[in-house]
Amino acid sequence: MRLIHSILSMLALTVCTTVYGASESGAGAAPSPRDQAPEILRRWMDARAGTGKPVYWIGEGDIYASPSGEKLFGIMGFDASTVIWPAEFKGQKAVQLTRKVYALTDPKTGEVLTEYKGKVVEGIAFPYQVFTYWLENGRIRATAEYGIEPNLIKTTSVNGLGWRSMGADTLVVNAPVFVNHTMPNGKHIESWESYDFFLHAPGTVAVPYQLTFVAYHDLPAWAGEGKAVNHMVSWRVESPDEFPPKLLAWAKANASMWLMPPKDMKEIRALQQPGQSGIKGWIDKK
Question: Residue 184: CB partners within 8 Å, gap ≥ 6?
Fold first, then answer.
């Protein structure tokens, strides 16, 4: 699979590799970086990437032709993430290490597509992504890094992530994304995306972390000319054992590497080296 999906429009970052989980400090112990973090940043990171153990965001949705509204494909997949709280930032910055993989499905049968009108179907696959978050001027700012040397892509969010309360028990974090850049292969990408994360107070709902996503972008080259609207809903689980059976079976057979997030920055630096395009699912820059 190769990239058909744009991500948060984000610049470079440097992080260390010490992973911090929930505080277990006793009396007199120095607070962990997570404990020192502003409440909004801590709540966001706890929801998005957990407190040390891997967490998983499952996604399901549909892709429609625009402006006709014809349903072209279904889409299903997940990302696996973990968190780093670099000690030197004293809770003012946090890092998410993640992998992301999605498959396109037949709009009627729901079966995973490998071919469409005689062409190979390309899904969405990132063997790694690194995001760094911090607070700035009342918004959550973010940077991202992905790709292979010498074509690493390092971007910074234009708008940042905003948040607002929805009732007494829910915090909504919104990431509006306006993509307008040229890929290393020379292709120019323009798209609009919006991510709405719903962070529910503990004990109020069975699934406390949820997400809706909508995007407007070009159809992938293999699907023909024109624009598409992509809509998905997502929710967080703590283990692949909680995946829908069809998604778990597909992942085990086709994307087993994605069932765990990157271990640390050492693994990510290795994935950035030339020659890694041989990894199944990595971005083809040629």
Answer: 147, 151, 153, 285
